[in-house]
Amino acid sequence: MAAAQDEGSGPSGLLERTLGVLEILALNAHGLQLFEIADKLHIPRSATHRVLTSLVEHGYVRQERYHGAYLLTAKIASLAFTFLSESGITDLAQPILDRLARDTGELIRLALVDDQRLIWVAKSQGAQFGLRYDPDMGREGRLSCSSSGHAWLSTMKEEDALALVARQGYGSREEYGPRAPQTPQALVKQLRAARKRGYAFVVQAFTPWMNAMAAIIRSPVTGEVTGTVSIAGPHVRLTEPRMHELAPLLLTAAKELSLASAASPTLSGRAGGDQRDGLVPLI
After folding, report:
1. pLDDT tens profile 68-113
2. Which of 54-63, 79-88, 160-169 is the least confident region?
3. C-alpha neighbours within 13 Å on the C-beta side of residue 18
4. Which SMART domains has this protein been placed in (predicted)?
5. Domains delineated in the chain
6. Is the CB of residue 228 less than 8 Å from the CB of residue 151?
């Protein structure tokens, strides 16, 4: 009976199940067995097999020999890179990200607002030696405890920002960092400080050993927030005083990305929702 309830709690439509399988495999690069995918999505194994068979036939998923694990193919990544290339994001943004990485010696990431989510889409690594923080791209940012999330949220009315975080959920300190805000009061305090200074920063909030800072990118056409640019690195090197020193470089890069975004249909498009109230200037 419990198994039946678990299966019933999963996605029911074919499209929902297909997208669920793709997202699960994206988070497990080494692949998963059919039963593991079915259990994670709470759907019947027979339905999981049908979805996987279709994805294999269309070249998006492959199965290791002799009934092994299922893995994503490069076709998904190819689609993403094609989209970024056609949108102009890589050509326009990468030189700015690369320069900021060289000047700071840390990881630089570009995130785009996608409806009510913040997705990291490009990066440049400035740390050539020693400790490095270099996560995978394409993941959704946790708004409550990331510098990019705080930068974006600080441009909204506080009730709208808190509602967005409530829908996504607060990042727990066990899963993220020991200083991740756990209450609306703690989060609002950080958002107000970010709004006042014009950029956000977090200390051991997203991971236990990493600090980061971020500034918003605005469309010069609509004036709305379309993304963020961030600097991230080990907390022993990217200290709070160091982040304040790097703020002018970050804000300059954010302004350049805002101006360059006019040539990109993705960067200059409208962000999810109306964020005109409570907007703050980049510099």
Report:
1. 899 988 777 667 666 666 655 666 788 999 999 999 999 999 998 8
2. 79-88
3. 12
4. HTH_ICLR
5. 2-72 (1.10.10.10), 80-263 (3.30.450.40)
6. yes
